[in-house]
Amino acid sequence: MAKKIILDLDTGVDDALALAYALGSPELELIGVTGTYGNVLVGTGVANDLSLLELFGHPEVPVYPGLRHARARDGFEVLEISAFIHGGNGVGDVELPEAQREAEEKSAVDFLVESVREYGDDLVIVATGPSTNVAAAIEADPEFARNAHLVIMGGALTVPGNVSAWAEANINQDPEASDLMFRKAADVTMVGLDVTLQTLLTYEDTAKWRELGTRAGTLLADITDYYIKAYETTAPYLGGCGLHDPLAVGVAVDESLVQLLGINMKVDTEGETRGRTIGDEQRLSDERKTARVAVAVDADRFLGELMRRIGSVLQQAD
Ligand code: BDR
Ligand code: CA
């Protein structure tokens, strides 16, 4: 039986790739997308999710709008660097056809809480934006922290951050929320920059999507090429764009793609290291580890899986 999955996305180019990866994975049943802010405003991200689901041939997947800003803030504005990397509209300034339907009335947080109550161990939540929705779900229902299986794209344990020397972008948006998640949730798998910056996509790869001759193939190639180009400026030494969010979905399907280190984690919320993901010194010797951090990845195997899974979605779409 396929494992149920919810994607919590701030869509975002690599969030779009994560969505395609999930839809192209027969091991998974995507029961909903919850929207968060981050690369874009929450409304823009939700509109992107609705358009992409239609483009990828899955208009049946519901989309639930999430919280609009971090818990310690009273608003949110898209950072200049986010717009540079993902485009002003989040999808590489490519114009996507507007979706024929609206988002659900139910909130992302309610949907997360209800789904964990209903499906328990049969459900995995993959969160590839700030931890704001997840932290709110933890606070809304004590059962959520005990029973949710979370895979997050975020953080950096063995390498520097990407918005500051310490902080990775998703954690940086809402460090208090990520800290609460690491301290309270019983099962978090962290897929951070340690591994995602080893998994790279190039123009040669996206050319294969364009060659499929489908509208979805062409548009996703255009969207991703914008992101690859941005990486040529921000991290030219990599030789491609980081496959952050799709790797988190890849790990949810098959965790043997990475090596996982069991460690109790926390997030620094004060001072110059604000946003740093690091082992919690007070729980270092606890026998029970509530987080597992990916510290090595089989990048070639993952790239093969990504091309095969996303390729199958783009081929079957219009
Ligand atoms: C993460 O930040 C966002 O910009 C990306 O979508 C990804 O989730 C990488 O640090
Ligand atoms: Ca993201």
UniProtKB/TrEMBL annotation:
<dbReference type="InterPro" id="IPR023186">
    <property type="entry name" value="IUNH"/>
</dbReference>
<protein>
    <submittedName>
        <fullName>Nucleoside hydrolase</fullName>
    </submittedName>
</protein>
<feature type="domain" description="Inosine/uridine-preferring nucleoside hydrolase">
    <location>
        <begin position="5"/>
        <end position="303"/>
    </location>
</feature>
<dbReference type="GO" id="GO:0016787">
    <property type="term" value="F:hydrolase activity"/>
</dbReference>
<dbReference type="InterPro" id="IPR036452">
    <property type="entry name" value="Ribo_hydro-like"/>
</dbReference>
<keyword id="KW-0378">Hydrolase</keyword>
<dbReference type="Pfam" id="PF01156">
    <property type="entry name" value="IU_nuc_hydro"/>
</dbReference>
<dbReference type="InterPro" id="IPR001910">
    <property type="entry name" value="Inosine/uridine_hydrolase_dom"/>
</dbReference>
<keyword id="KW-0326">Glycosidase</keyword>
